[in-house]
TrEMBL record:
Keywords: DNA-binding, Transcription, Transcription regulation. The keyword Cytoplasm does not apply. Belongs to the LysR transcriptional regulatory family. It comes from Trichodesmium erythraeum (strain IMS101). Residues 1-57 form the HTH lysR-type domain. The lineage of its organism: Bacteria, Bacillati, Cyanobacteriota, Cyanophyceae, Oscillatoriophycideae. This is Transcriptional regulator, LysR family. It comes from the Bacteria. GO terms for molecular function: DNA binding; DNA-binding transcription factor activity. The keyword DNA-binding applies. It holds the Pfam family HTH_1. InterPro entries: HTH-type_LysR_regulators, LysR_HTH_N, LysR_subst-bd, WH-like_DNA-bd_sf, WH_DNA-bd_sf. One of its GO terms (cellular component) is cytosol. PANTHER family: HTH-TYPE TRANSCRIPTIONAL REGULATOR YBHD (PTHR30419), NITROGEN ASSIMILATION TRANSCRIPTIONAL ACTIVATOR-RELATED (PTHR30419:SF8).
Length: 325
């Protein structure tokens, strides 16, 4: 069965004439006749009484409402696709890591909203691993994640590097480690830590770093919000290893202290240089077909222009991302 056969059938049913149906379809009468005959062969029944006026048979009356639904559904689908490519998109779904969502995304959302006020924005803050899954499942349009060695972009994915930032130590202002300007790893590894929950890229990054240094990670608590990290660390002896972008609020909190980490010895997976500054890369990910949709393309453009507004860029030898934006 072909769509034009159903359309010819509906025009004949509406006009009661093969000739008038041909005029409506802008084809010859013989073409309409062939399409209806082919449809009758498909369903195995005569659809019209062919007399002075074409009237539906019982089989035709049975087919008619179904044919209308099929043709209407096709018309709706083609119209929605056409509108989508002209920028008429009902919503834009974004998934991002917490630090970007809290600190860098608001001005992007504000400018996007002024440009596309009719597009509803849906923003979700998740861990990088979870974000990649929802992106691959088609549940979000744009993802902002921490890049990692486990992420292998597929051919349809577009990946753009946003920034590289250092990992620092968050602690209470009166913590023993606060006496250091740069905390040596030999000191750092002895203190209990609060880390992100499973599914967050930072948890894996911290664990991998300790494994590569041959040290045991003393993780006593797992959390998933930056507010919770600050609250727990403020109360006692726990410390947290967090990226710079996650520490903006903590920098103005007199009850908290932030210290850099001394350069680590050469580790093959971390750096090919003599010493390494521990850092992470943050990337934007979407798919090539989504980049053809004007609102998504504009949102990605804003992200590249605005994020990050104030992050110290550090050289990263781990970056293995190709930019196609």
């Amino acid at each position: 069965m072909r769509l034009e056969q159903l359309q010819a059938f509906l025009w004949v049913a509406e006009t009661g004439s093969f000739q008038e149906a041909a005029q409506k379809c802008n084809v010859t009468q013989s073409t309409v006749s062939r399409q209806v005959q082919a449809l009758e062969a498909e369903v195995g029944a005569i659809l019209f009484h062919r007399s002075n006026q074409a009237k539906l048979t019982l089989a035709g009356e049975c087919l008619w409402p179904h044919a209308r639904k099929i043709c209407q559904a096709w018309e709706n689908a083609t119209q929605e696709i056409a509108e989508m490519f002209t920028g008429k998109q009902p919503e834009l779904c974004i998934a991002t890591i917490h630090s970007v969502c809290a600190n860098y995304l608001p001005p992007v959302l504000q400018r996007f909203g002024r440009h596309y006020p009719e597009v509803k924005l849906r923003v979700t803050a998740l861990g990088s691993d979870r974000i990649l899954k929802v992106l691959k499942d088609g549940l979000v349009d744009v993802a902002i994640i921490m890049n990692n060695d486990l992420f292998t972009p597929t051919s349809e994915m577009i990946v753009h590097h946003l920034y590289t930032e250092t990992i620092e130590v968050l602690m209470a202002a009166n913590h023993t480690l606060a006496k250091y300007k740069e905390i040596p790893w030999a000191e750092l590894i002895y203190y209990p830590q609060v880390i992100f929950k499973d599914g967050y890229g930072m948890q894996r990054l911290v664990k991998e770093q300790f494994e590569q240094l041959g040290a045991k990670l003393n993780a006593t608590l797992e959390l998933n919000t930056l507010d919770a990290f600050r609250g727990v660390v403020r109360q006692g002896n726990l410390i947290a290893l967090l990226p710079s972008s996650a520490l903006l609020d903590a920098r103005v909190d007199p009850t908290l202290a932030i210290r850099t980490i001394a350069k680590t010895p050469n580790i093959s997976k971390i750096s090919s240089t003599k010493d390494s500054v521990w850092s992470r890369d943050v990337v934007l990910v979407t798919t090539s077909d989504r980049m053809k949709i004007p609102p998504i393309k504009y949102f990605c453009k804003l992200v590249k222009e605005i994020i990050p507004p104030r992050v110290t860029q550090v050289k990263s030898s781990k970056l293995k991302v190709q930019s196609h934006l």
